[in-house]
């Protein structure tokens, strides 16, 4: 008992309970010392049990040794010997009883310590200080549960379930709050981008408004314009007066015509203004300023041609006239990535917009699947240069291009010309799907593939011989020759159908001396075309001789029919 009291007295965790104002570093040092004391206490417990067993054994051995020593001097049956042995036996029994009791106390203390370690492990505590804090927390929670139970009459199980549900709801609300904060940050970033884009657009519009001509045709020009024109004339006169070329009586030697052409081209070229600015020049300014610049640039090195501003009004008008770029989703097969980039580059040229402006415009034109591909790119690519962003998005769309090519190949193989479909309509579909199916072919190879498939659809026509002849005609594009011939044949059929009367004949023509040809003449023409395609069908009796030309000709229109009698 004194050992346990001393251990409790020297326990640093117990001291920490009394002194709660100790710094954190001291608490950690004391807890580490407490862990070492726990190990030492366990070793002392095992040592105490061992000492108790050894002590009981030694006491019994001492009793035996004393009795043996007494037996040397006193005989058996002597009263002194019996009294001595009785006293030694009783003393030994008392001492053994005390040792046994001490052993039981040690065992009980060991069991209590084991139970304490199990409870501490179940609470997840490493030190006694943590255990005390956990017990205090449990006591507070128990008091709260008792108060809830008294106020609501709920059983303990229901209280526990409601507390668990409340904890889950709290976790869900915290996660939703984090998502809301993240979305708010994104919204603020988008609003800042929109404000910057709006401000830049407003500035560009103000500059364009400030530089637009304000004079009206037929009205006198403003004083400012007249002042500028007079200033240009005066500068021209000063330059011409100070130029030694016009003062001396000789000319500088000509080195080469290329030098003169280079300087003249350099003096007349127009330099673009900074992006987003528009410059407006009046006809008078162009004539005066251009003539003066052409006469001075290349002759006087002190004069620079960078001071003459370029005219961006045409660029601005082109921007307004061009249609808006359609939003690219990545799901429309008829609106590919190449079509989108072509329209985007035409509407927003790189020399008129900065990289950040182009990236903002590109992002505003993406949606659905294309926006998902954009957001999946690394942050370094999305915040990098505009050219790298376009290259990464193009690589992402290459897989889609391969899939679209496979689909186009399947559609092209199944493409057939129906009876109600014209040649032009079929050629439109053929040209559309052949470009998607064979993007690697050049112009001539693609024309050959189109001509082959178009002729397969028209091979059953009676005029297929003429179509084949048109396709084999010398020329750079066999497909266009075949297409034009097929459309010509189709127009001929439409013309013949339009002049045919309901009875099967042909309507009377405008001139009275020309009679209508019967329908068998059309059949005769078809037969002639068939024989021209395959001459073997015209051989008679298998002789292989060509048919008589006179027999194959149709009878004359005004021929007189003679009858003979046998």
Explained architecture:
69% of the residues lie in helices and 0% in strands. The chain is elongated and about 165 Å long. The protein contains 22 helices and no strands. The chain is mainly alpha-helical. Among the domains are: 37-125; 326-405, no CATH class; 415-497. Helix 17 packs across helix 18 (443-458). Mean pLDDT is 70; it is low at 1-23, 243-310, 504-526 and 528-566.
List keywords for this structure.
0% strand; 566 residues; 22 helices; disordered C terminus; mainly alpha
Summarize the entry for a quick read.
This protein is mostly helical and 566 residues long.
Q: Tell me the fraction of residues in β-strands, as a range.
A: under 5%
Main beta sheet: strand number and arrangement? none
In percent, how helical is the residue content? 55-70%
Task: Give a count of the beta strands, DSSP E runs of length 2 or more.
Answer: 0
Helix-strand sequence: HHHHHHHHHHHHHHHHHHHHHH
Contiguous runs where pLDDT drops below 50 for at least 5 residues:
1-23, 243-310, 504-526, 528-566
Secondary-structure class: mainly alpha
List the helices and strands and how they pair.
Blueprint lengths: L1 H9 L1 H7 L5 H48 L7 H44 L5 H25 L3 H56 L11 H20 L1 H4 L9 H12 L14 H14 L16 H9 L15 H11 L7 H10 L3 H9 L2 H4 L3 H29 L8 H15 L5 H16 L5 H8 L6 H22 L19 H15 L15 H4 L14
Helix pairs in contact: 3-4, 7-10, 16-17, 17-18, 18-20, 19-20
């Amino acid at each position: 008992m004194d050992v346990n009291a001393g251990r409790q007295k020297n326990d640093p965790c117990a001291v920490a309970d009394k002194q709660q104002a100790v710094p954190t570093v001291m608490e950690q040092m004391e807890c580490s010392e407490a862990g070492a004391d726990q190990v030492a206490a366990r070793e002392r417990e095992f040592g105490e049990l061992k000492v108790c067993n050894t002590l009981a054994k030694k006491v019994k051995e001492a009793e035996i040794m004393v009795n043996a020593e007494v037996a040397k001097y006193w005989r058996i049956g002597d009263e002194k010997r019996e009294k001595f042995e009785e006293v030694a036996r009783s003393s030994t029994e008392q001492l053994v009883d005390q040792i046994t009791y001490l052993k039981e106390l040690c065992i009980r203390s060991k069991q209590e310590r084991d139970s304490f370690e199990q409870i501490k492990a179940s609470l997840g505590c490493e030190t006694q200080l943590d255990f005390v804090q956990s017990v205090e927390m449990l006591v507070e929670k128990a008091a709260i549960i008792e108060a809830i139970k008294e106020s609501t009459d709920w059983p303990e199980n229901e209280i526990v379930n409601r507390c668990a549900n409340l904890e889950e709801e709290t976790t869900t609300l915290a996660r939703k709050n984090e998502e809301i904060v993240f979305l708010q940050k994104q919204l603020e970033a988008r609003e800042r981008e929109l404000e910057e884009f709006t401000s830049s657009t407003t500035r560009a519009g103000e500059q364009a408004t400030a530089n637009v001509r304000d004079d009206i045709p037929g009205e006198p020009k403003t004083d400012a314009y007249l002042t500028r024109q007079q200033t240009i004339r005066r500068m021209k006169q000063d330059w011409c007066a100070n130029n030694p070329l016009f003062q001396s009586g000789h000319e500088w030697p000509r080195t080469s015509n290329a030098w003169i052409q280079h300087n003249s081209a350099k003096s007349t070229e127009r330099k673009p203004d900074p992006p987003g600015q528009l410059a407006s020049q009046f006809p008078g300014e162009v004539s005066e300023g251009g003539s003066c610049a052409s006469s001075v640039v290349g002759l006087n090195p002190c004069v620079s041609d960078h001071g003459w501003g370029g005219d961006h009004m045409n660029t601005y008008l082109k921007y307004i006239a061009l249609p808006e770029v359609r939003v690219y989703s990545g799901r429309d097969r008829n609106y590919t990535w190449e079509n989108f980039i072509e329209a985007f580059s035409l509407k927003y040229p790189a020399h008129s917009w900065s990289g950040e402006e182009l990236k903002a415009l590109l992002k505003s034109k993406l949606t659905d699947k294309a926006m998902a591909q954009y957001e999946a790119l690394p942050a370094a690519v999305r915040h990098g240069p505009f050219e790298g962003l376009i290259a990464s998005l193009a690589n992402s769309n290459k897989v889609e291009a391969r899939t679209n090519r496979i689909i186009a190949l399947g559609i092209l193989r199944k493409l057939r010309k129906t009876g109600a479909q014209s040649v032009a309509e079929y050629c439109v579909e053929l040209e559309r799907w052949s470009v998607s199916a064979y993007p690697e072919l050049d112009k001539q190879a693609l024309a050959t593939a189109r001509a082959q498939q178009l002729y397969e659809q028209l091979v059953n026509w009676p005029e297929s011989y003429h179509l084949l002849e048109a396709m084999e005609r010398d020329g750079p594009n066999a497909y266009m020759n075949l297409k034009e011939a097929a459309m010509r044949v189709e127009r001929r059929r439409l013309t013949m159908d339009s002049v045919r009367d309901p009875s099967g004949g042909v309507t009377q023509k405008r001139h009275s001396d020309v009679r209508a040809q019967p329908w068998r003449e059309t059949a005769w023409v078809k037969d002639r075309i068939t024989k021209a395609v395959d001459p073997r069908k015209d051989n008679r009796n298998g002789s292989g001789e060509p048919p008589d030309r006179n027999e194959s000709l149709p009878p004359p229109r005004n021929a007189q029919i003679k009858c003979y009698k046998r």
